[in-house]
Design brief:
six-stranded mixed sheet, about 20% strand, globular, cytoplasm
Length: about 425
């Protein structure tokens, strides 16, 4: 057991899109950076200078031989030859632990400037995390970082705590997927968890393809520079970098497209219909290279993919996802399905506290539209209430905020899985300590 307030715990929520880290008890994470890394294979670059070879040698103790990793928005914002952008996740599951390790390392040592030996760690994990993944996490934390104590908490449970509830239905729409998770008395009801592969990144890709279909290409920021011809008048000069990888180009385009999505897109009040939205007023958006584009019906069509995945088939360039979309149900159907898999006694309570969380859930009008669709489709007796914090920051970071609240509670301090318990029982004990 820990002496309560003296030692502040560190809370880390590694999501598909970004990693949030900070101190327990604070109201927002100190560090937020992308959960992808840039990697350069030093073997391929024979013209490496001897200094870089030395760096590569020092790094190779930590990572795979000759792979140099760049973590954080600043390192990723700088274009380098042959740099691939890699994500540690595939289908929502961690597949590359070296990348995860470098992200944790960056969060603790570079962003928070703390020594992990002195702070207990509370890590958020997906609701469907497997036993091997939990044990691997405990192993890295205790063996490599020597943390004094660890706790793994489920994303949905933390979101529920952040809104002050023990029972709720959490609709978590993040970068990689959308997950519907019923939480009862602080525990996840695993049998009723539903997921869909449509998340923020998928919508961003739909937007890129849709704009390309209209002849608009998004120029990544590194591919041009502005040259002043007369005071206040600029000319765009294209730059050519033949060694830029495809993955880095896509990463840079997604950054811009996701900003367009956040600025102009909103969920339509009624299901999207080509005719009804054909003569809607256009919204201008200025791209980094100064070109101003007009976005019309796409503002409503792209977000509606969450409610009606088959719309993907009408977006040029997304045809290969058509089969996937036909197997995925829309948000309201997933919510009803999840509630119906739960015990009859708690269904009423779940209907009245549906919580929205995650970056994609911060989209305008999403809450109102989901509530409206659910009212139409749910049983008469149910009182449907969709809740979402009015503050977009709270919606985006609800998992982290829940972790921050939990780890600073006095009554939680005897729940930690301590280093001595790990030494005594091994990594598998994490299953008993962190339900």
């Amino acid at each position: 057991m820990y002496g309560g307030d003296e030692v502040s715990a560190i809370v880390i929520d590694l999501g598909y899109h970004s990693c949030k880290a900070g101190y327990a008890g604070e109201d927002a994470p100190k560090a937020v950076f992308p959960s992808v890394v840039g990697s350069i294979d030093q073997m391929e670059l024979d013209d490496c200078t001897s200094n870089e070879k030395k760096d590569a040698k020092n790094d190779s103790d930590k990572h795979k031989p000759n792979l140099k990793l760049y973590v954080g928005s600043q390192s990723l914002g700088f274009r380098r030859d042959h740099m691939e952008v890699q994500s540690p996740f595939k289908d929502g599951v961690v597949v590359d632990w070296d990348i995860v390790d470098s992200i944790w390392d960056h969060a603790l040592r570079t962003c928070l400037l703390v020594d992990p030996k002195e702070h207990p760690m509370l890590l958020a994990e997906p609701s469907s995390n497997s036993q091997q993944h939990r044990e691997r996490t405990a192993e890295i934390m205790f063996e490599k970082y020597n943390v004094p104590a660890l706790f793994l908490a489920k994303n949905a449970v933390l979101t529920s705590f952040a809104s002050g509830r023990a029972t709720s239905l959490v609709v978590d729409s993040g970068g990689g997927s959308t997950t519907i998770v019923p939480v009862h008395d602080g525990y996840v009801l695993q049998k009723a968890v539903g997921t869909s592969p449509i998340g923020g990144e998928f919508l961003t890709d739909c937007l890129i393809k849709s704009l390309e279909g209209k002849g608009i290409t998004i120029k990544p920021r590194y591919s041009f520079k502005r040259k002043e011809i007369r005071p206040g008048e600029f000319q765009i000069v294209d730059l050519d970098f033949p060694n830029t990888t495809e993955s880095y180009k896509l990463y840079s385009q997604r950054l811009i497209a996701s900003d367009i999505k956040e600025c102009v897109c909103r969920a339509p009040d009624t299901p999207y219909d080509e005719l009804a939205y054909s003569n809607i007023p256009m919204t201008p958006y200025e791209l980094p290279d100064g070109q101003i584009i007009e976005i019309g019906a796409d503002r409503f069509k792209i977000p509606d993919v969450l409610f009606n995945p088959s719309l993907v088939q009408t977006i040029p360039g997304m045809e290969n996802y058509a089969e996937m979309a036909s197997n995925v149900r829309g948000l309201p159907q997933m919510v009803l399905e999840s509630i119906n898999k739960c015990d009859v006694d708690i269904r009423r309570e779940l209907f009245s506290s549906i919580l929205l969380s995650g970056g994609t859930a911060s989209m305008q009008q999403l809450k109102e539209r989901l509530e409206k669709d659910l009212l139409e489709e749910s049983p008469q007796a149910a009182r449907v209430k969709v809740l979402a914090s009015g503050n977009a920051t709270e919606r985006r970071f609800s998992v982290w905020i829940g972790g921050s609240i939990l780890a600073s509670l006095g009554s939680f301090q005897q729940m930690w899985f301590s280093k001595s318990e790990y030494d005594e029982h091994g990594a598998s004990y994490v299953q008993r300590k962190c339900p």
